Amino acid sequence: MSSVRVNKDDETVTIKIQGRFDFNLVQAFRDSYMDEGNRGSQYVVDLSEVGYIDSSALGMMLNMKKFLEADNGAIRIANCQPNLKKIFTIAHFDRMFKLD
What we know:
Layout: E1 3-9, E2 12-21, H1 26-34, E3 42-53, H2 55-69, E4 74-78, H3 82-90, E5 98-99
Parallel strand pairs: 2-3, 3-4, 4-5
Antiparallel strand pairs: 1-2
Helix pairs in contact: 1-2
């Protein structure tokens, strides 16, 4: 089962995805960064427990970036498995996000 968990420490909001990062998480992922209580200046999308993403996950990341650019929120994609990092690199996400 896939899920989204949010943890906020000072100005850093960590969004941890578990399971598949796909269309089933659209609303939960959107809520994770749009909720006023989860606002910060730094955002980390932790993919340490994700083994699969689809094109809707890429779209969700772009929507997040567009939404947070108004607040100058920095986004980092953390703990990518090699297969996910390859997808992000092919899609040129390494130019739009910090990847580690």
